Amino acid sequence: MQTNKRLVFLLEAAILAAIAFLLDLATSFIGKMPQGGSISLAMVPVLIMGFRHGLKGGLLTGFLLGLLQTVMGYTTIVHPVQGFLDYFVAFTAVGAGGIFYKQIQNSLHSLNKWRLILYVTLAAFLGSFLRFAAHTLAGAVFFAEFAGDQPVLLYSAGYNASYMIPTFIICTIILVLMLLTSKALIINRK
User: Fold this and answer.
1) Class for domain 2-185, per CATH?
2) Which terminal CB of the chain, N or C, has fewer other CB atoms within 10 Å?
3) Nearest CA among 179, 137, 182, 181 for reference residue 51
4) Which residue spans traverse the membrane (predicted)?
5) DSSP string over 72-121
6) What gap in Å lies between CA 102 and CA 106, rounded to an integer?
């Protein structure tokens, strides 16, 4: 029985990572940035996995998303460390929203929609902020030549905020609407 649960967990992570990759492809033309980055819905499936299985599920799904992007060649990589930060670290970090797993599950079970909205927003914010931080660090180190006279870290933060803030807002709205209308998406039946 334990083997079946583990297999289901791995299959869900793989399927949701593939859906995240496809959503990224389908929506990445919106707000496409010149040095990489765009407004995308790829965070939605990663966070759903975190809401279903907790931190481990979210982190694994985010890591698989970064791996898929890299293997499939849909990346802007100028240095291996930058590629690692922008794809593996950034998208794995999105799964950190799974830290709110218990609060979200409890909010759904108790039918407390305001608590659900709060915890989904906090989870999306945490995942978005950590992803933003990884992209900002990579940008400050490896795309400094685009900063001109501005402080490099400030330039990188502004550049990455220009698509991460709308991404956070859109993904949060979609997640809240999905979970308010279909809690079966993430209810964990043990």
Assistant:
1) mainly alpha
2) C
3) 179
4) 7-27, 33-51, 58-78, 84-104, 116-143, 163-186
5) TT----SSHHHHIIIIIIHHHHHGGGGGGHHHHHHHHHTT-HHHHHHHHH
6) 6
DSSP string, 15-79: HHHHHHHHHHHHHTTTT--TTS----STHHHHHHHHHHH-HHHHHHHHHHHHHHHHHTT----SS
What pTM does this model have? 0.90
Cα 112 to Cα 58: distance, rounded to the nearest angstrom: 23
Quick: pLDDT tens for 89-111.
999 999 999 999 999 999 988 88
Helical packing angle, 152-181 and 43-53, nearest 10° = 60
Residue 149 phi, psi dihedral angles, 5° rounding: -85, -5
Mean of all residue pLDDT scores within the chain: 88
Residue whose token pair is 């220009």: 162
Reference 119, options 167, 180, 65, 64; nearest CA is 180
Under 8 Å between Cβ of 42 and 65: yes
Report the half-sphere exposure of 6 (CA within 13 A, side-chain side).
Answer: 3
Q: Are 103 and 109 in contact (CB under 8 A)?
A: no
Distances in Å between the Cα of 15 and the Cα atoms of 48, 82, 153 are 12, 26, 36
Tokens of 10: 């791995």
